[in-house]
Amino acid sequence: MVKTIAGNIAFGLNCLLLFLAISDQVLALPAWLQVTGRMHPLWLHFPIALLIAATLAEYHLTSQPSSEKKILTGWADALLLMASLTAPLTAVMGWFLSQEPGYENDVLDRHRWSGLMVSLLAYTWYAGRTWWRKNRFATWMIAVGNLSGVVLAGHFGAVITHGADYLWEPLQKKSGQSTPLPDSARLYTEIIQPIFEKKCNSCHNQNKAKGKLILETEEGILKGGKNGALWDIQAPDLGLMMQRIRLPLVEKKHMPPAGKTQLTALEIAIIEQWIKAGSPFDKRIADLEPTDSLHQLAMTWLKPPDDPYAGMPFPDPDLIRMISSHYCVVQPIARYSPALRVHFFGASHFKSDNLKALEKLKNQIVELRLGHMTVQDQDIPYIAALTQLRLLDLSFTRITGKTLPALKTLRHLQTLSLTGTQIHAQDLDWIDSLPELNAVYVWNTGLSSQEMEALSKRFPRMHFEDGFRGDTIVTRLTMPLFRDDELLVFQGDTVIELKHFVKDADIRYTLDGREPDSVHSAPYEKGVRIDKSLVFKAKAFLTGWLSSQTLERQFYKRGFQPDSIRLVKLPNPQYAPNGRLLCDGKKGDTNFKSGKWQGYRENGMEAWLTFDTAVIVSNVVFSSLTDIGSYIMPPLNLQIWGGNSPASMSLLSTERPAQPVKGEPAYLKGYECAFPPRRVRVLKLVATPVARLPAWHPGKGDRGWFFVDEIFIN
Amino acid sequence: MEKEILEYSLQINRRRFLSKMGIGIGSAALGSLLMPDLFGSRADAETVAGLPHFAPKAKRVIYLFQNGAPSQLDLFDFKPKLNAMQGQDLPASVRMGQRLTGMTSNQERFPLAGSVFSFQQYGDHGAWISELLPHTARIVNELCIIHSMHTEAINHDPALTFIQTGAQVGNRPSTGAWLSYGLGSENQNLPAFCVLLSKGKGNGQGVYAKLWTNGFLDSIHQGVQFSSGDHPVLYLNNPDAIDRQDRRKMLDRLASLNEASYARFGDSEINARIQQYELAYRMQTAVPEVTDLSHEPMDIIKLYGPDCLIPGTYAANCLLARKLSENGVRFVQLYHQGWDGHNNLTGEIKGQCADTDQASAALITDLKQRGLLDETLVIWGGEFGRTNYCQGPLTKDNYGRDHHPRCFTIWMAGGGIKPGVYGETDEFGYNIVENPVHVNDFHATLLHLMGLDHEKLTFRHLGRRYRLTDVAGKVVHDIIA
To answer: Which of A160, A210, A473, B138 is 20 to 30 A from A257 (CA-CA)?
Structure first.
């Protein structure tokens, strides 16, 4: 019973293993499975030992007389069963372990597949044990298969944990300090052959010479392959080898073939230049002119991968957590790097103490950005303590430059930004003592352009960024703006307030419709009080700038409110909101569909306004819209009638508003009808729309619209 | 008998075989349970740290989106052949029956229209730039001009949605949201993804919140629109009679309620909501600081042009974009409307360029003089290109151009980009002949520059993993420095 269950478990585990192998999915493991995975290096000893034991038992079994076989068979079965159970278990654990980061892919794959093979073989052995035993040879086959699987898987596993050279290293002859100085290196042995070794020789070696080409030896290279010599310096494309390398990847003949590690651009360039140079096998780099492109390529190739922060101690994560805040962000410059970048945000939250606290991370902070913070002269010593700094941004801070020389301690500083501060040229006298400094940002400071030039001459290794200078550029100033953009209609009186984004702009205004100028017009100071409907114009001036365009707006005073409004002629039903709309104090904009506008076309407008108590009126303003494209025009004429009762009306005023010209954009305008003061209880307002649109209009001859949103009576 | 002996020796018969199969299938099922579903998504584990997959070339992006599709043929992709063949029909061999929009597909003729604007070569790489972009011409040495962008959609909405979210249908996360998800915010006091809108006078196409949606990602990754009024972020200020302490108390109380309800329901959106309130609280002080332009030096005003002081203009948005980016905002997305030149292209494009050219170039110059261009990726471009043939009547000095998805020009600058001219279209400016860059490739490259592997930045939704590039996309290494 136990055996059956164990056998089934072994089978199940193998199936699971196969599934994992085939689906090749990335697993997300919970912690407890990770623990199981990490037990792989422990467990793997079981199948190894058990498989060896099982082999011994099988050997024993074949050599025993049949009388004793029964007991022995029981033992052998048990050993086989345990082996075939622990093998897939180990493999599954290994699979879990392999999901953790940091394992090399190539060897890992080999280890994985050989492990899987061992597991399957062990189970095959166990499941078919009676069959194998029938034939001695078969037993040996399966046993040897299993054991070699174990050796193979074990070896690849050891390569993962101990490294590829671990086993044979003691036997290899020590070559001493073998990295030669770049200059004395031979091009072929130090560069060309290693490239071939890495990218080509796996197929073009003495054992496996694909295309009959051997790249391992000088003779092989010179001999070429079945398609002949590798290069031809006379040919524009340098012959076969470069041809193959340069073919697109999709081409079958491209080398190295798709799927293999490709040559890098640098490697290709080196090979090409080397062939061009006559493929010298003996030449040393020192023999080449330093300006030679092959020399430069070779030096680039030999340069050790530079990690400026190698050897830097890793920071204490708790410390980082303690110092970091929403306003002081401390972060590694890249994943797995000890070096830190610190960025301050939010000037209103900046405190010197934040800066002081950074000292604890002085061995790791390489970048400090303090732009726009309220850093002052007395904070500089805190920065001077951060001796690993490469980049320091003090732009737009409050420093004056007096304490800057304290930064002499920043031996690694490369970039220093002082943009937008109060520093002067003499504050920079010391910067030559920073050996690595190569960029200084000094625009928008106390430095004149001559001083900046002098600095560049004095410290030629540094770049002084002088920024964009606008002094010579003359552009137009922007218009002043109304502080209250909604203000159009007022009662009694009001104050017009303006603003301008350029602080020093000089704003002039007029109230009589004339264009403001910088001499005669009133200067705007705090606000302009008005108490009647008028056109307000304002303009901004500033030396060094062209004057702004004119800001213009008509303001309406809201005087008497009629007690009733009767529309004798109704507006077009589409734009027929009720009569009260004409005196609700709400102006419409250029959108005639907004519901604030009444639109008249066929009938024209006739509205009767009555007042319960008589009022003295001298001025009526029609606020209207003109939008040529939508056929909305100023009225042809306007009439104001008034009297004490509907029976006793007399014509008070007639106006013929000016019509727009072709192409004028939509505009809002108030048409004022003024007349001598008159005591009235009833007003009749008549507006006649344009009967025929002018000849230049796309709808010439058609009727025009008249749109009105508000009537102001004063 | 033979069969029984064999069965015995193999210890297998039909019943045992079937029962074993059962175990096998069961084990496979166990294996499938081990897959990410059960134990949460690996994508989360990869991205939750907010650190890039590998050392990034760029830390932040500013995307100057030219909404409506600017005409590459009048700005960057100089095709004298079109002028030589002015008014002649587009050869069928060039068009090869490729689809057209409904707006021109029923035109009887497709008269070629050469640009009325003059071109000149600028910079180290001899890039052709039209007279409409004098400021851009001045900074051309910083730009990588890509002539070979192409997309799949032929109308605005799907094309916009595609280039913003990697899919033509809506509700996928926008690029900025992906970056917010993948890298988080540098500055915890501002949203990682900010959106700025402006409008030119040319024929416009809409922009709408779907373009900066978080899609299926947590709503904390949604783009936050900054508007042009006195309140750049709506509803951010405290109402009258509520001060900052009151607000703090209210938020603390609200957070405890939300936490209780999170403990009960475990809905991650509740957590997102708590975070959003906290972010908004911090934004109350951070936003006024960032959006205050009053301390900008006069040189900067002149650099961007005085329009930059008028909120809501493209120039103002460029300046604000720089300020946001400088303050650690991961992705600033601008949209400038008005490039959809179907009819009066020559007139409209002048205005559009006047509105955008100086400020776009200024942004590059400004970032550079602050030492920020190296770590900021700036992208300029629309959703597709415009046709080489005229839509509507072709006159001597005016024409219209229809939508053209088969090639268009964008430029990229800064963060890890190799300046130059990349890709080539045929002499008609209709098809790409060299180095095509698909929208998916563009996204893959963008993520790569930010240190993210576009195949690893995934999110599990509705039973499968999604990527910005979904199932396609190749990093264009040629344009990376």
So the answer is: A160
Does B371 sit within 8 Å of A468, measured CB to CB? no
Q: How far is A407 from chain B (nearest CA, A)?
A: 20
Instruction: Identify which of B195, B188, B197, B196 has the alpha carbon closest to the alpha carbon of residue B223.
Output: B195
A397 touches chain B (CB under 8 A): no
Neighbours of A298 (CB within 10 A): 25
Q: How far is CA A405 from CA A352, A361, A463, A648, B304, in A?
A: 19, 22, 19, 93, 35
Residues within 8 A of B (CB atoms), A 438-457 only: 439, 441, 443-444
Does residue B128 surpass a pLDDT of 80? Answer: yes
The A residues from 319 to 338 touching B (CB cutoff 8 Å) are 326-327, 329, 331-335
In one-letter notation, the amino acid at residue A677 is P
Q: Do A11 and B23 touch (CB under 8 A)?
A: yes
**Distance from the B403 Cα atom to the nearest Cα atom in chain A, whole angstroms:** 26
pLDDT value at position B49?
47
Three-class secondary structure of residue A682 per DSSP: strand
- Looking at the complex, does the CB of residue A667 fall below 8 Å from at least one CB of chain B? no
Tell me the C-alpha distance between B453 and B44, whole Å.
14
Interface test with B, best of A27, A125, A345, A440 (most B CBs within 10 A): A345
**Quick count: other Cβ atoms within 10 Å of Cβ B404?**
25
Model confidence over B149-174: pLDDT tens digits?
A: 999 999 999 999 999 999 999 889 99
Interchain proximity B306–A335, CB inside 8 Å: no
Put simply, the answer to whether B186 touches A343 (Cβ < 8 Å) is yes
- φ/ψ region of A463 (left if φ > 0, alpha if ψ in -120 to 50, else beta) reads beta
Q: Do B20 and A23 touch (CB under 8 A)?
A: no
What residue type is assigned to position A551 of the chain?
L
Q: Choose from A268-282, A331-345, B368-382 the range with maximum mean pLDDT.
A: B368-382
pLDDT digits (tens, 9 = 90+) for A101-134: 656 567 888 898 899 999 999 999 998 888 888 8
Query: For A549, phi and psi rounded to 5 degrees?
Result: -70, 170
H-run or E-run covering B459: strand B458-461
Nearest to A370 by CA among A342, A349, A412: A342
Q: B370 and A417 in contact by Cβ < 8 A?
A: yes
Query: What pLDDT score does A180 carry?
Result: 39
- Six token digits for residue B313: 């203009």
DSSP strand pairing (A706-713 vs A605-626): antiparallel
| Separation between Cα atoms, residue A578 and residue A596, nearest integer Å | 10
pLDDT averaged over chain B? 89
| Among chain A residues, CA nearest to B57 | A334
**Residue pairs spanning A and B at CB distance below 8 A:** 160
Alpha-carbon distance values, B214 to B164, B223, B232, B392, B453 (Å): 11, 7, 21, 39, 20
Distance CA A120, CA B92 (A): 63
Cβ of residue A585 closer than 8 Å to a chain B Cβ? no
d(CA A687, CA A600): 9
Looking at chain A, how many residues does it have? Answer: 714
